[in-house]
């Protein structure tokens, strides 16, 4: 594989030429069937070790580059040119490839990967590469088991129990009476919450379907994650029956509007049943007032969900958990350890206050998997409460990382990020040409416009907005072409495109923040 374009920015190191290529030569004309489990001789076992050690070397090399600022964050190519360059190398043929080629394939694949663990990668809510979590993921892959029954995942099942109980304890629920499951991401965790809420109000739907359903209506802030609305689509509730509640100038749900919409729903004869409060919105990082929302939920008998997929980690910090004040009054919580806590992808938990609700809502007792006459305590078979059959082991890496850091290590990781967010905010205040979307952001999302000189003195209004709308996408495209750093942008409501800086990478230090802002100025100055 040859990259079509050579790297332009010479202050950055070129990717190395294959340093270990010579040692790979010994895998020329060696094929997969010469390794375990096909070749069980001493020779087969030795080749297996040698091969895997080479793979680990390649991975270590990548990890080091992730942490080395003299390497770029990415080597961007447009899809068509990457396809032209790599296409022929990606084909699957009738002939097997030898293990030398397989090693080259691993190395070349990583070459074009975006270094999401790089200290200057700010593009997503999940950034960074935690090495203990990575080690956990490697073990998970080697153990290669399924989470659906205790019989094939005994240790991991116990770990799941312990970690879910710990998370519920941190939320502030009494443990002996609660429930939860690890799901493939926050979007699915949110789906679980809506599903359980609907089960509570109308359990007959499980067997009889939508024809027995009254008209149900749910509520969430207009800035909540799209997966809440999509749950309404998936579950046959309908997106029109997922009402977006207005937000205030800080992007927080307006409780008055929530109550108004509930009253309106009741007046129409429909049944309000669910409200989701967001703990750290995806764009602005706003925290809905959970306590006040829970008052309304109690008054009208609604299920209260807290989607803190992003902000959940703040619960681990004594100084910052007040952002989620009232969360113990929720019926369910979505919390993604793969975001703020830094576990590797993916790792998301949905926690429920009512014990057994997931089981009641989802179980079908398939006889080939969840036999009721097993010789052990079958309450340890967790699979039948999930909406999946097979479930990936997402627990081990989280458990291992939590062991290695302790509550205190995670707390200081989160406190440090909050300090870094304040550092960025101060920088933005001191510099000319930068403007906040909301003043004094309370979390790790720092949203701002860069206003180039040519736009700076234009009066506020449509013309200025139209010009400003083009700035962030233009800077981002140049940023990706040079590959030095990455940060996201988007519009919001009527607001023109702005940068959404996410401070969630534990590798980042103040210098990297300076670098980002200087890079934006350098690229955007003359726009
Ligand atoms: C990221 C996010 C989600 C979705 O989580 P995935 O793991 O990407 O599915 C849901 N809600 C909020 C608030 C989020 O920030």
TrEMBL record:
Keywords on record: Decarboxylase, Lyase, Pyridoxal phosphate
InterPro entries, alphabetized: PyrdxlP-dep_de-COase, PyrdxlP-dep_Trfase, PyrdxlP-dep_Trfase_major, Pyridoxal-P_BS
Cofactor(s), names only, from the UniProt record: pyridoxal 5'-phosphate
Keyword Ligase appears in the UniProt entry: no
Residues recorded as bearing N6-(pyridoxal phosphate)lysine in the entry: 339
Any one GO molecular-function label of the UniProt entry: glutamate decarboxylase activity
SUPFAM superfamilies: PLP-dependent transferases
One GO CC term, this protein: cytoplasm
GO biological processes: gamma-aminobutyric acid biosynthetic process
PANTHER family: GLUTAMATE DECARBOXYLASE, GLUTAMATE DECARBOXYLASE-RELATED
Oligomer status and interactors: Homodimer.
Protein family membership: Belongs to the group II decarboxylase family.
Protein name in the entry: DgyrCDS12720
Organism: Dimorphilus gyrociliatus
């Amino acid at each position: 594989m040859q990259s079509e374009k050579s790297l332009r920015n010479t202050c950055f190191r070129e990717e190395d030429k294959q340093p270990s290529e010579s040692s790979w030569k010994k895998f020329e004309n060696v094929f997969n069937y010469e390794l375990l489990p096909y070749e069980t001789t001493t020779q087969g076992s030795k080749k297996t070790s040698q091969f895997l050690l080479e793979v680990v070397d390649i991975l270590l090399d990548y990890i080091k580059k992730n942490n080395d600022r003299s390497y770029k964050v990415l080597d961007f190519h447009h899809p068509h040119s990457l396809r032209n360059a790599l296409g022929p190398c990606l084909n699957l043929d009738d002939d097997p490839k030898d293990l030398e080629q397989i090693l080259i394939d691993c190395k070349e694949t990583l070459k074009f990967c975006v270094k999401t663990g790089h200290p200057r990668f700010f593009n997503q809510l999940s950034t960074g590469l935690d090495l203990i979590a990575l080690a956990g993921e490697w073990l998970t892959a080697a153990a290669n088991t399924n989470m659906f029954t205790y019989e094939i995942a005994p240790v991991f099942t116990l770990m799941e129990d312990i970690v879910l109980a710990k998370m519920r304890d941190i939320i502030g629920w009494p443990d002996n009476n609660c429930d939860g499951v690890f799901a493939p991401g926050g979007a699915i965790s949110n789906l679980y919450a809506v599903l359980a809420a609907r089960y509570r109000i109308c359990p007959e739907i499980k067997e009889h379907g939508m024809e027995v359903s009254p008209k149900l209506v749910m509520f969430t802030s207009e800035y909540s994650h799209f997966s809440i609305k999509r749950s309404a689509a998936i579950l046959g509730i309908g997106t029109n029956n997922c009402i977006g509640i207005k937000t205030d100038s800080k992007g927080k749900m307006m409780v008055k509007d929530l109550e108004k919409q509930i009253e309106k729903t009741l007046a129409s004869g429909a049944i309000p049943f669910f409200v989701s409060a967001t703990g750290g919105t995806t764009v602005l990082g706003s925290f809905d007032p959970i306590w006040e929302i829970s008052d309304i939920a109690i008054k009208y008998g609604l299920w209260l969900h807290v989607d803190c997929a992003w902000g959940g980690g703040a619960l681990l910090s004594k100084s910052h958990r007040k952002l989620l004040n009232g969360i113990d009054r929720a019926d369910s919580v979505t919390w993604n350890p793969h975001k703020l806590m830094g576990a590797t992808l993916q790792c998301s938990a949905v926690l429920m206050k009512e014990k057994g609700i997931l089981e009641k809502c989802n179980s079908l007792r398939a006889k080939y998997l969840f036999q009721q006459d097993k010789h052990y305590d079958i309450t340890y078979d967790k699979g039948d409460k999930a909406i999946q059959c097979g479930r990936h082991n997402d627990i081990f890496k989280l458990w291992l990382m939590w062991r290695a850091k302790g509550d205190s290590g995670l707390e200081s990781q989160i406190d440090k990020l909050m300090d870094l967010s304040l550092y960025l905010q101060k920088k933005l205040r001191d510099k000319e040409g930068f403007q906040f979307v909301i003043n004094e952001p309370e979390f790790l999302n720092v949203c701002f416009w860069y206003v180039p000189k040519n736009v700076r003195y234009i009066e506020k209004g449509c013309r200025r907005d139209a010009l400003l709308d083009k700035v962030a996408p233009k800077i981002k495209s140049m940023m990706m072409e040079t590959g030095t750093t990455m940060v996201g942008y988007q519009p919001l409501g009527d607001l023109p495109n702005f940068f959404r800086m996410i401070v969630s990478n534990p590798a980042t230090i103040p210098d990297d923040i300076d670098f980002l802002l200087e890079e934006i100025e350098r690229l955007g100055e003359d726009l």
